[in-house]
Design brief:
The chain has 175 residues and is of the alpha+beta class. It is built from six helices and eight strands.
Length: 175
């Protein structure tokens, strides 16, 4: 039986620590299950092919910078709260396009929106999600993040684990 896999861009350094302080406060369960990240592919359909495609995408992409922006919700707060990701150089968009064919069809039908989840709908009660939104509404940190790797992660209950990490091609970080 294949375990569920996803493809993500890990957030590291001081920004990861800032994001994780918010996640630990409002959604400690999910924060413990998975590190801060931007998801490229939610549910990989072909694990063997994923390795080749992710390796090729990483090799053809120089590290790049994005900015974490304003907090938003997926409808009601209980459905989830996230930070928008500004992708001025198109790095996330390009990587997503290169890897989108790996997406499970139910996710592929949804419009891709680069984001960093702060509060997940499956692990936070409605009241707590509303309290989180009351505090995060209007929050716009404008945190710059350097994207330097792509991770293939796998759900091994109760947590997600990195199976493979692909460093982006050597070069100057575009900022």
């Amino acid at each position: 039986m294949l375990l569920r896999r996803a493809i993500v861009l890990p957030i590291s350094g001081a920004v990861r620590d800032r994001v994780d302080r918010i996640r630990t406060r409002w959604d400690p369960v999910m924060c413990e299950r998975i590190g801060s990240h931007v998801t490229l592919v939610h549910d990989v359909t072909d694990h063997a092919r994923a390795t080749d495609l992710v390796a090729a995408a990483a090799a053809s992409t120089a590290p790049f910078a994005v900015r974490l922006g304003r907090a938003d919700r997926w409808g009601p707060s209980a459905w989830g709260i996230y930070l928008h990701v500004d992708d001025p150089h198109g790095g996330i968009t390009s990587l997503h396009q290169q890897l989108a064919s790996l997406e499970e069809p139910r996710w592929a039908r949804a419009t891709f929106r680069a984001h960093v989840t702060l509060v997940h709908g499956r692990t936070v009660e409605t009241v707590a999600a509303e309290q989180a939104w009351a505090e995060l509404d209007g929050f716009d940190p404008a945190w710059d993040v350097e994207i330097r790797a792509i991770d293939v992660i796998e759900l091994r209950e109760p947590a997600w684990r990195t199976v493979e990490r692909f460093e982006l091609a050597f070069g100057t970080v575009r900022s």
